Amino acid sequence: MRLERAVRVRVREGLHARPATEFVKLAKAFSANVEIFRGDRSANAKSSVKLMLLGVKEDDDVVLRADGDDAEEAIAKLAAFVETPGAGLDALKPAVAAAASSSGGAQGVAASEGVAIGPVFAYFPEPLIAPRATIDTAMSESEKARCRAALNAAIAALEQDAAERSAEDRQIANALIEIACDAEFTGDIEQRIGHGLDAASATLDAGDALAARFEALDDPYLRARAEDVRGVARNVALALLGRSEASLAAVPQGSILVADEISAWEFAKAPVANIAGIVGLKGAATSHVAIMARAHGVPAVLGCNIEPRRLREAHVIAIDGGAGAVILDPDETQTKAMHARVAADRTARAALDAWRTVEPRTREGKWIEVLANIGSPAEVAPALRSGAMGVGLFRTELLFMERKAPPSEDEQAEIYAKVASAFAPHAVVIRTLDVGGDKPVAGIEIPHEDNPFLGWRGVRLCLDRPDIFKPQLKAILRAAASGHVKLMIPMVVDVEEVRKTRALIEECRAELAAQSKPFGEVAVGIMIETPAAALLADELAKEVDFFSIGTNDLTQYVMAADRLNPRVASLNRADHPAVLRAIDLVCRAARAADIPVAVCGEAAADPAMIPKLVALGVTELSMNPPAIPRARKRVTEI
User: Fold this and answer.
1) Which is the catalytic residue, given 147, 288, 304, 587?
2) CATH 1.10.486.10 fits 2-93, yes or no
């Protein structure tokens, strides 16, 4: 039997002496002939010297080939080895991913990078059951007043808890308070009370209804807000029932916090320094808890496929937040391996930390800007700490989607100016509203579409709704008075869309001047995320000041492969020749027009893709903040 498998090497620093020795020992355990291919070179996997001479580095793409009766098992074991960051360190043969697939482990969502092992602190509050009492209509006003008092008390408690926390934690707490005070949420509660339901039951029902609306959205960041809504409703209901939530204040030092679901409201009260890691049965990488965990450097795995009973009964848990792997009650060998990985991870993090301030220049001296993608002011502080040289993508959708009505020009201007000031003199690229059938917004009636990703979204919607678009354009212009701001138009397919947007910007400048409102100049660029934009890049380059390639959407459109569909995941590759040719077209057009070109999709943070992008002519890379130090380091190796 002859088998091949392409894998990406995750072993720290690659297959150098110790990992190579362990890899060869593992290969020799099989009768099959085993080879490893790196580019156009190959080596016998049973020869340490030949393997080391092959020079396989971390994040290299290699092909494993085995020929023999036990080829299938050999390929599986060797692939698991090279995909494990700590493999070969102190002869660590067991892989966390392999253990996670065994009876003692599980797999979940990789929510916050890092590895940890520690005793379990189980946090499973009892389900909150309201009395579901029927109240007399005459009592509804007093019940509403009682509800408002409980809401104010819950908010005051959260503000007090958040006061001693970091700036980003306080900003997330403020976002939760916005939800609690939102007129749609409170109005629904009072309407239910008016129909005869007691305040606690009305609050929980309204929370469930609003959470269900968020969970129905396609956008993962917005789906994750359902967790926030449930947390808010639960805390208000607890206040109404005169009960206290089970506290996270007693988490012992070095514990792994396990729970069904942890709301940001609850996490804001926890002593984060005592938490070594987090495991949740629910949750996503876009949840506020995940954002807070990443900001504090706490490894986290959410959305785990573990039976609640098994999680409750575990005594010790080991987790790999980068791989989304969890081991319940690891055995002695696994425990030793994980402690060694924790030590290695600590060393690696400390080494990467030094790259936060190192100039990202290639060995030939080419300067590459490394920027952050953010979605709210809460992510500013982590981005700055990670060494972001500005913001390459500020998604503005969340400002619109968490409200009953679109935010006003003044509200938007204040938020954009705050972010611009924080990063000055570096640039902040603000993407204009990118919503459509998959991302409904209050105040914009969006008809049902069978395929919203090919429908009325992005700049198409905005140009049809100047009443929504112009206040945002004015807010961006006003924010430019506080820092270096750039404006980016999404979902462009035609030159005329750019010209119409520029005409609206000129109208907005004139109106701001007439109102004596200060504003600044902004560079105007576009997202290259459609095949049409890539093919028309030479014409579009004459109309704009910069390009930013959204590789996530560009890849799915070029490959005709939905990035959310696991059945076609193998096609959704930014390194596919067709996608790379599209990027090459864009970079050639940018060079000819002498404008910068950025990448703000996931490919920007991929160590294997960074050299390819730079070789094609990309001058800026924008990514989630935790990936910035690694990207800076990778640039200097080119």
Assistant:
1) 288
2) no
**Contact indicator for 512, 477 with CB cutoff of 8 Å:** yes
Burial class (CB in 10 A: 0-12, 13-18, 19+), 496: exposed
User: DSSP states of 325-355 as a string?
Assistant: EEEES--HHHHHHHHHHHHHHHHHHHHHHGG
- Going from the first residue of the chain to its last (638 residues), give the mean pLDDT of each consecutive group of 10, the final group possibly shorter: 82 72 80 86 80 78 84 80 68 45 68 89 81 82 90 82 64 75 86 90 90 74 74 85 75 92 77 91 78 81 86 91 88 90 82 88 95 87 92 89 79 95 96 73 70 81 93 98 97 96 97 97 97 97 97 91 68 90 98 97 88 97 89 94
Strand duo 597-599 + 546-549: pairing? parallel
Is it true that domain 357-636 has CATH number 3.20.20.60? yes
Res 18: pLDDT = 63
Active-site residue flag, 576 = no
Q: Which residue bears the tokens 């980068």?
A: 322
The DSSP annotation for 38-81 comes to: ETTEEEETT-HHHHHHHT--TT-EEEEEEESTTHHHHHHHHHHH
pLDDT at 103: 46
Q: What is the pLDDT of residue 91?
A: 37
Tell me which CATH homologous superfamily contains domain 137-240.
PtsI, HPr-binding domain (1.10.274.10)
Positions of CATH 3.30.1340.10 in the chain: 2-93
Report pTM.
0.61
What integer pLDDT is reported at residue 164 of this predicted model? Answer: 63
For residue 195, indicate whether it is catalytic.
Answer: no
Write down the pLDDT at residue 94: 40
Q: Which of 581, 382, 573, 391 is nearest to 479 (CA)?
A: 391
Inter-residue contact 150 to 199 (CB < 8 Å): yes
Contact (CB, 8 A) for 217 and 395: no
Query: In which residue ranges of the chain is CATH 1.10.274.10 found?
Result: 137-240
Task: Kindly calculate the radius of gyration of the chain based on its CA atoms and give it in whole angstroms.
Answer: 26
Q: How far apart are CA 138 and CA 194, in angstroms?
A: 9
Q: Given this model, what pLDDT does residue 100 score? A: 53
- CATH 3.20.20.60 domain extents, the chain: 357-636
CATH of 115-124+249-352, one of 3.40.190.10, 3.50.30.10, 3.40.50.720, 3.40.630.30: 3.50.30.10
Catalytic residue among 304, 508, 587, 600: 600
Cis peptide before 518 (omega within 30 of 0): no
